[in-house]
Specification:
This protein has 128 residues and is α+β, with helices and mostly antiparallel strands. It contains three helices and five strands, in the order αβββααββ.
Length: 128
């Protein structure tokens, strides 16, 4: 059998993190089309703890899920660009903020996993 050996750090990174709010940095972003045919961004989101440990999650954000999409833009200080209706994957790389992490119960034989529930925004401007 062939396999990819994991370092102790990689094994630790695969463990579930407790639900809560964490600082994040978007390390990679790619515009894609979902299986349902919708435009979306696939993000590599690095979260960290005060002890310096970090973990990278993949998040799929679709304009169709308007609230999370707008919150992500606001958390990344991209509301002005969001208002134009045009965003690029390059707009997100390197952006930092805070997010809410949850634990999603496993389905169809898959284990529980961490999921980004939302991106945290300190204040949103009132709707026009």
């Amino acid at each position: 059998m062939q396999f990819s050996p994991c370092s102790d750090q990689e094994i630790e990174e695969k463990k579930l993190w407790a639900k809560g709010d964490y600082p994040f940095e978007i390390t990679d972003a790619e515009e894609k089309t979902s299986q349902g045919g919708n435009s979306m961004f696939q993000l590599a989101v690095r979260i960290s703890r005060p002890d310096g440990s970090a973990h990278t999650l993949t998040d799929y954000v679709l304009p169709k899920r308007a609230e999370k999409f707008k919150h992500r833009c606001a958390a990344c200080k991209l509301l002005e660009k969001y208002e134009t209706g045009v965003l690029s994957d390059d707009d997100f790389v390197g952006k930092r903020g805070r997010l809410r992490l949850i634990v999603e119960k496993g389905k169809n034989g898959y284990p529980d996993r961490n999921v980004i529930a939302d991106y945290l925004v300190t204040t949103l401007p009132p709707a026009a």
